């Protein structure tokens, strides 16, 4: 964390705001603050592109590569000597890929990779991690409360009509978007400048989690369907959205078997046609070609 292995943070008994960026190439985190065996409530107050309208209390949140969130940790009632650990709780990383063209399942591959030549010298994806130790070292005078209103967050409405379908899958070991891989000269997605579009991101069952990132724009998440239980149990609304889905997003996680609908306003201030990129933010996937040009046409 912040280039420091096993960091310690010396805190006072007050509220802390953390802006958390998952800067990993591929690793996801299931972030929680733990005191002894107890998971603490914390407040999600912001996502990739800004503040939520109001704080949302959670005990855990997934954060995929390139996703950000702002959180408040309330230590006002803590005593000097109390310790809290920021952890990543164990989860199923859902490496359900099909492998490099072989018939064997991804799980089996992963098991072989993990156990074939002795124990791994790294923490496998989804394993429990202790990320930062926070120790309350001093008392302070702190008389501020958690605000109940944070920002005006206007909804971005579904304009109706058919969504644009974006499929994520793997064939012969290659990750694809709409059956395609990156071609510098091709612009397979063309959007009208100023259009508001709904994209329906459909991740295949035999797949991996893909944090999908659109350059240049911020989106809102409309719904999650077919989510795995570990995601579904974090839903705070009927459309399946978690607290971390409720603000402006440029990187949206989609799990294997999940369909995520997002809405984006493709307005921008630049002259003429502009080409942006949409890609998976798992860097191995992106570098393997899981990226397309997106042309915004005047
Ligand atoms: Cu990916």
Descriptive keywords:
binds copper (II) ion; Immunoglobulin-like; six-stranded mixed sheet; 298 residues; five-stranded mixed sheet; globular; mainly beta
Question: What does this molecule look like?
Answer:
34% of the residues are buried. The strands form four sheets. Strands 1, 3, 4, 7, 9 and 10 form a six-stranded mixed β-sheet that branches. The protein has a five-stranded mixed β-sheet with strand order 12-11-14-18-16, with no helix packed on it. It has three helices and 20 strands. The chain has two domains: 8-138, Immunoglobulin-like, CATH 2.60.40.420; 164-297, Cupredoxins -  blue copper proteins (Immunoglobulin-like, Sandwich). The longest helix is centred in the middle third of the chain and has 10 residues, at 106-115. By secondary structure, it is mainly beta. The chain has helices at residues 106-115, 229-232, 283-287; strands spanning 8-12, 15-21, 29-35, 38-40, 42-47, 50-58, 61-63, 68-74, 83-88, 129-138, 164-171, 174-177, 189-192, 196-203, 210-214, 219-225, 251-254, 259-265, 274-280, 291-297. The chain binds copper (II) ion. Residues 175, 208, 210, 280, 282, 285, 290 line the site of copper (II) ion (CU).
Q: What does the largest sheet look like?
A: 6 strands, mixed
- The first-level CATH class of the largest domain is given as Mainly Beta
CA radius of gyration is 20 Å
Number of DSSP E strands: 20
Low-confidence stretches: 100-115
How many discrete structural domains? Answer: 2
Terminal Cα span: 43 Å
Which small-molecule species are bound to the chains here?
copper (II) ion
Average pLDDT metric: 93
CATH topology of the largest domain, anyone?
Immunoglobulin-like
| Level-2 CATH architecture of the largest domain | Sandwich
Structural class: mainly beta
What's the helix-strand series?
Answer: EEEEEEEEEHEEEEEEEHEEEHE
Shape: globular
The proportion of residues forming helix, as a percent range, comes to under 10%
């Amino acid at each position: 964390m912040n280039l420091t292995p096993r960091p310690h943070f010396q805190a006072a008994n007050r509220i802390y705001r953390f802006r958390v960026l998952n800067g990993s190439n591929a690793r996801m985190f299931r972030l929680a603050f733990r005191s002894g065996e107890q998971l603490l409530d914390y407040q999600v107050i912001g996502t990739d592109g800004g503040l939520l309208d109001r704080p949302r209390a959670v005990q855990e949140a997934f954060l995929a590569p390139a996703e950000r969130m702002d959180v408040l940790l309330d230590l006002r009632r803590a005593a000097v000597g109390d310790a809290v650990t920021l952890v990543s709780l164990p989860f199923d990383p859902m490496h359900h890929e099909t492998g490099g063209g072989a018939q064997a399942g991804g799980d089996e591959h992963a098991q072989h990779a993990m156990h074939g030549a002795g124990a791994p010298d790294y923490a496998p994806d989804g394993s429990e991690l202790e990320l930062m130790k926070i120790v309350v070292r001093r008392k302070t005078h702190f008389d501020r409360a958690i605000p109940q209103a944070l920002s005006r967050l206007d909804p971005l409405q579904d304009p109706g009509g058919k969504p644009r379908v974006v499929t994520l899958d793997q064939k012969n070991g290659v990750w694809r978007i709409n059956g395609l891989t990156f071609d510098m000269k091709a612009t397979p997605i063309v959007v009208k400048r100023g259009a508001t579009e709904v994209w329906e991101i459909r991740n295949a069952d035999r797949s991996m989690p893909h944090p999908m990132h659109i350059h240049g724009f911020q989106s809102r998440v409309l719904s999650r369907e077919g989510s795995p239980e570990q995601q579904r149990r974090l839903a705070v609304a009927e459309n399946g959205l978690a607290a971390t889905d409720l603000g402006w997003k440029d990187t949206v996680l989609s799990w294997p078997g999940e369909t995520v609908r997002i809405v984006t306003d493709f307005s921008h201030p630049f002259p003429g046609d502009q080409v942006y990129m949409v890609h998976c933010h798992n860097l191995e996937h992106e570098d393997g070609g899981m990226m397309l040009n997106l042309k915004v046409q005047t």
